[in-house]
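User: Fold both of these, please.

Assistant: Here is the first one.
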Amino acid sequence: MSHWVEEPLILKNKSPRWHEQLQCWCLNFRGRVTVASVKNFQLVASVKPHQSLSSIEQEKVILQFGKIGKDIFTMDYRYPLSAFQAFAICLSSFDTKPACE
């Protein structure tokens, strides 16, 4: 009897792009995040060389978290994360990044 084992989902920070006009590294939150913060992040699937995912799939944001006001944040997530998993990841970011804003 053979058992099919699914590989674990490994997430990584999405790489920012250099914005010539602003002269800084930026992530595109598509209007969902409006305040610059060290706590803002986007996570994408980390792909191993033997996995065949299109570049569009590799860039698909699975979880994004960002500041939209004083002590107000927004969180967007998609499958395969659950709301609980996404919230736990976002909550953990408050413990690991300095509150220097």
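And the second sequence with its predicted structure:
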Amino acid sequence: MNIKKRKAVLIALVYMVFMFPVYSNAMHIMEGFLDPLWCAVWAAASLPFVLIGFNKISKILKETPEKKLLLALCGAFIFVLSALKLPSVTGSTSHPTGTGLAAILFGPAPTAVLGLIVLVFQALFLAHGGLSTLGANTFSMAVAGPLVAYAVFKSLKKVNVKLAVFMAAFLERVYTN
């Protein structure tokens, strides 16, 4: 790829990141914050992705059982990374999620399952989020972010793989919370 085309792609990506910012002041939606109706709506919105994810994971493990360890490692990576609280400019905290890596390796559907498992553990053991808001948090962290990461990676990997991985992880984080 020539230099002019690379510069154009880089300028377009920078423009996309800075012209469409997403502001976040919290880690997860806390327990009891959402109305029960919205809890049900978000759970219903997340459910198809999780069910498709379970089917994809089953298919992946039947075809290549040796990927079980890598899948578990991605889940552990998501858990550890998303358990970190980092100070934010707004005075709140934020955190990386790590779902971009799983989306690149396995696709967005299996990542939805990994994200759901991580969110259940965080709600029960770390008091991040809650069980009633699990659907909304799942959609934010485990559906929307991985879909963005996967789409960005697939569209940029032919241009430059390193740039594709970086932009997928970066934009996944920007659009997750």
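The chain is about 70% helix and 0% strand.
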